[in-house]
Amino acid sequence: MNAKEYVNKYKDELINDMMEIIEIKSVREEAKEGMPFGEGPTKALQKGLEIAERYGFKTVNLDNYVGYVEMGEGEDIIGILAHVDVVPEGEGWTSDPYKPEIRDGRLYGRGVADDKGPGIISLHAMRIVRDMGVKLNKRVRLVLGANEETGSACVRYYKAKEGGFQYGFSPDAEFPLIFGEKGGFGGNFSAPLSVDGAKTVIESIAGGVVSNMVCPDVTVYISGEGLEEIKAAFDGYKPHEEITTESSFTDCGKLKLYLKGKAAHASFPEQGVNAISYMIDFLKDHITDSPFVKAYSDLVGLCYYGEKCGAQCEDQYGVLTMNLGVISTENGVATVTVDCRVPITIDFKDQADQVVKNFENAGCTFNVNRLGSSLFIDPESDFIQALYGSYVKVTGDTENKPFTIGGGTYAKTFENVVAFGIEFPGENNQIHMPDENMHLESIYKCCEVFVEAIQRLLAL
Ligand SMILES: [Zn+2]
């Protein structure tokens, strides 16, 4: 039998196994004795390993952080990285997210596509490779993590105990495959909002929710002289069609300014309208002695690519993006978060030092809390071609090519591991959304792709 025939033979078990593990609500909970991510993720991990044992695989559970399923012999290990924890179900489901259901040829349930389903699909792909009698000259390991969605401590635990892989893939994103993920440079900068003796004082600026989103709205309180003029100017401030503003006086005579822009993901800041940047752009013309406002306009302005602070750079796969996500004020000092996504092939270390210096020279303090490396594997390498070739062979799709993203997937934890599947181009699996689902035919096709991929990686 060939791979397709095997998938057809095992497909009922494949779907039943997916349903069995999806039934366990594996959202992160409070840690318990021996359960670092709580009961749900632990039970799902144990269930995944139990299913693998039914098919005769060796399994190892590393303290309920992470486990693995193994077959084959030899030094080299081919890794497959999936996770059994899920994000909360949220509102708006047509059926119970933890009672998987087949409707219109699709399997619905939380975790169908992200990422319990892909874990089970990978397990059956291993089973098929074994049952086809393929020579296992290397070990093949399916790693099941229990905390990808809330920090990936599971795979770091694995790496510390077991090391890395010769080659590997993580079915936790999209087909065809992702051969590059941007690096990260992040932190925050601070400066006083006012100087001593200022006639007009910015008391506070606050806005934003998370550092990896474009700040959607911001509120400023101002006291002192000239407030009527500032209010009148702000009421006429319309720098962008997606911006709305409101202004009012508080009971104690302070001027309150509110500006609403538009949120977007930090890796595409230009798709949003940053409320902080537009608020500062207004303030700079009306309050000229604020150290924070001056530093922000000089070094950030209305830019999305770090043009003013020395962060700007690009390579053939993309440009550096810079996002300002959250602003807060404490004791008259404003602090704003910075989230830069660094082009894949660029070593940013020296440039990061220069960016920090530029902020310091402008009177700010700058705290770096992240300088993460990128992931890049030559798309022409045998490894990438083996995976992409498997995808092309099974799907016949040569139009969609391997691509790069702003980062970061599960794959990034390891060298020589890339995100491969499982959402097919043109499909929407509703990942992290209500009614998460996967077409049954796509489940089978995905399994077939993985059977081919495992064989090709064994042959490298
Ligand atoms: Zn995932």
Describe the structure.
It is a single chain. The protein is α+β, with helices and mostly antiparallel strands and 460 residues long. The chain has 2 domains: 3-182 and 376-459, Aminopeptidase (3-Layer(aba) Sandwich); 183-372, Alpha-Beta Plaits (2-Layer Sandwich), CATH 3.30.70. It is built from 10 helices and 24 strands. The strands form 7 sheets. The chain has a 6-stranded mixed β-sheet with strand order 1-2-6-3-7-22. A 4-stranded antiparallel β-sheet has the order 17-18-10-19. A 4-stranded antiparallel β-sheet has the order 11-12-14-13. α1 (3-22) runs antiparallel to α2. The longest helix has 20 residues, at 3-22. The protein is elongated, with a radius of gyration of 26 Å. 48% of the residues are buried. The protein binds zinc ion. The site of zinc ion (ZN) has 5 residues, from loops.
What are the salient characteristics of this protein?
binds zinc ion, six-stranded mixed β-sheet, Aminopeptidase, 460 residues, 24 strands, Alpha-Beta Plaits, 27% strand, single chain, alpha+beta, four-stranded antiparallel β-sheet, elongated
